[in-house]
Design a protein that fits this description.
Radius of gyration: 67 Å
CATH topology of one domain: Phosphatidylethanolamine-binding Protein
CATH class of one domain: Alpha Beta
Largest sheet: 5 strands, antiparallel
Oligomer: single chain
CATH superfamily of one domain: PEBP-like
CATH architecture of one domain: Alpha-Beta Complex
Number of strands: 11
Strand content: 15-25%
Shape: globular
Distance between the termini: 203 Å
Helix content: 10-25%
C-alpha cells in the first residue's frame, strides 16, 4: 500500500512539474496562453490598426489657356486710280480752226501739223473770218484792196532755218502770192505788208505775186467764189537759191526744183473761200 502511495505521490509531483514546465513554455510562446478560456489568448486584430492612406493631393490647378490674340486688321485695298482724261483733239486756234471746213480738207486744214521735233506746228490768221460753212477772206484781204492778212505760227520743226508762205487758188490752180526768206526766229507777219520785193519787216524777206510785174500780196479776185489754200513752209535753208527765187509763183510752189526740195516736214495749211470784193 505504501508503495502505491509513494508512487502516486511521485506521479503527482511529476505532473506538477510538467504543468509548471508547460506553463513556463506557454508564457514564453504566448503571454496569454496561461489563461484558460477558449483555447488560448484572445487573438488581437492583426497588428496595429493600419493608418489611413495619405491624403491624396488634389490635382494641380490646370492653367487657363493664354488669351488668343485677335487677328491683325486687314488693310483696305488701295483706291484704284481713275484713268487719265483723254484730251479731245482740238482744231487750230484762231478763226481758221472752224468746224465747218471742207470735208476733203487734209489734217493741216486745222492749222496744225506734227513737227519733227515732237512738237506741233501751228499756223493761224487774224485777218480771216468765219462765215457759214467755214473761213472766208474779207474785203480788205481780197482784190482790189489786197491788204495782206496778219499771220502767226509756232512749233517749228527741228532743222527749220527760214519760212515761206504761199496763197494758192485750189479752184483755178493759180498761186496768187509767195513770201520767202522769213528768218527762223520770226513767228508772225503783220497785216498790210508793203507792196515791194524786199521787206524790212521781216528783215530781208522777199515776196512776189501771180503777175510778174507785181511785188506784193494779191488776194482772191475773179467773179466766182473759189477755195484758197494758205500754206506755211518751214525750210531747211536760210535763203532760197537764186534759181528758185527767180521762178514764177506757180513754179516755186509746185515744182520739185522749187521750195518743195527744202521743205521740213509737211508744212501746215489754212483753207478759206474768197472772191473779188470779199465775203
Amino acid at each position: 500500500m505504501r508503495s502505491f502511495g509513494s508512487t502516486l505521490s511521485l506521479f503527482s509531483a511529476l505532473f506538477l512539474i510538467g504543468g509548471l514546465v508547460g506553463c513556463s513554455s506557454g508564457d514564453t510562446a504566448n503571454p496569454d496562453s496561461g489563461r484558460g478560456g477558449s483555447g488560448g489568448s484572445v487573438s488581437g486584430s492583426g497588428g496595429s490598426v493600419s493608418g489611413s492612406g495619405g491624403t491624396t493631393g488634389s490635382g494641380g490647378t490646370t492653367g487657363s489657356g493664354g488669351t488668343t490674340g485677335s487677328g491683325g486688321t486687314t488693310g483696305t485695298g488701295g483706291t484704284t486710280g481713275t484713268g487719265g482724261t483723254t484730251d479731245a483733239g482740238s482744231g487750230g486756234s484762231g478763226p481758221e480752226a472752224g468746224a465747218d471746213a471742207p470735208r476733203d480738207a487734209t489734217p493741216e486744214t486745222a492749222a496744225e501739223a506734227g513737227g519733227t521735233d515732237g512738237g506741233t506746228l501751228t499756223f493761224t490768221s487774224s485777218g480771216l473770218r468765219m462765215m457759214g460753212a467755214g473761213l472766208v477772206f474779207p474785203a480788205a484781204a481780197s482784190a482790189p484792196m489786197n491788204q495782206s492778212p496778219a499771220f502767226m505760227w509756232s512749233g517749228a520743226p527741228a532743222g527749220t532755218m527760214s519760212f515761206a508762205i504761199s496763197l494758192h487758188d485750189l479752184t483755178a490752180n493759180g498761186t496768187h502770192w509767195i513770201i520767202w526768206d522769213i528768218p527762223a526766229n520770226v513767228n508772225m507777219l503783220p497785216a498790210g505788208l508793203p507792196r515791194m520785193r524786199t521787206l524790212t519787216t521781216p528783215v530781208m524777206a522777199k515776196q512776189k505775186a501771180i503777175y510778174g510785174d507785181t511785188n506784193g500780196y494779191e488776194g482772191p479776185g475773179g467773179g466766182g467764189i473759189n477755195m484758197y489754200e494758205i500754206q506755211l513752209w518751214p525750210l531747211n535753208v536760210a535763203t532760197l537759191p537764186a534759181n528758185v527765187a527767180n521762178m514764177t509763183t506757180a513754179q516755186m510752189r509746185s515744182s520739185d526744183m522749187g521750195m518743195k526740195q527744202f521743205l521740213v516736214g509737211a508744212g501746215v495749211k489754212i483753207l478759206a473761200r474768197g472772191t473779188k470784193g470779199g465775203l
